[in-house]
Amino acid sequence: MKLVELHTKADRLTGSYYLGYLVYQNEDLTVLIGLDDDANASGLILVNNQDLVGMVEQSPSLAYCQRLIDEGKSTDPFQLMPVNQELLKGNLSNFFEAGKAALFKKLPVNVTLNNGVIYSGIVTEATLEELRIRQIDGNFALDRIHSVIPMKQISSLEINSALGKMWSEYQDSDIAGNPYDLVELYLDWLDDDRFGNYLLGRVLLEDDHYLLFESINDYGQLEAICLVNRDDIIHECTASPVIDFYSFLLTRNQEAGIFDLNKLDHLAQSLDHVPSPLEVLQNAGQQLVSVDDYAAPVEMTGYIQGLTDSEVYIEDPVTGQVAPFAIDRICTIDLASSELEKMKEYLAAQE
Hints:
By secondary structure, this protein is α+β, with helices and mostly antiparallel strands. It has 9 helices and 20 strands. The protein starts with a strand and ends with a helix.
């Protein structure tokens, strides 16, 4: 099977694209075995050919994925391939058949419309004209209302995703409370698109100015060991449906041996104090660093081109642009993270 990258009209609104192995293409749909950001197996992705604007076999992202595949780092940590293969033995020739399969097997789906709107939930009915879905809400419960989605408005449909599988497992779990002392940290980001977002994880150490924080990703895996500026924390939450769900994911992933795939925890265990941002930057040397400024629209990852007691100059490794950051305005800085490892692999794949 060919490794491909797909772009759709809806991509222009969602800012995303699809990576995976091309399984087949008929007059209506293109079907992929999806790959996630780590080139690991994801669910099946069905794309409406009328919304498809491009399929490429060479791109920076594909080179990155191919490098991970060649290195043996592309795996199936969430055990999705058995169900993918079972689904592919059936009829997935159109969205109606895919909806029926999801309904029969009780598999959550992610449906992207051609206007960029995304529905995630359980299929309750599938007809030739429409899908009916009960969406999974922000509290990881099912909405009472059944959303009606016309088939002709669907750009893509993903079935058997990792988060969907784990959500289904969560429905049968009895984990309650906050056994891992997880916390949601809301920071004072100025950017409208970031304000209201939060970091999820555990506080490992703290002093008067910074937290040494173990950050958890969307899949309930260890994402980063980072510093968080206490002055930028505007709210903390230790009891919520989000924390209940991710407490389950931590237990699940630890039992499956996939919680810390990048072996980041050894760094946290080696620290006996909370380092300052300047200390982290000085120790980084020629290595990639990742810093976040409360006023910035995105996190910055790159190489240090200059460092003083008050400022750091970071070069974007892709564009070559250098941006200054005032050290006292840094709200988070990674000591080690999966994103830094991904960027190293990505840059190596472009050489």
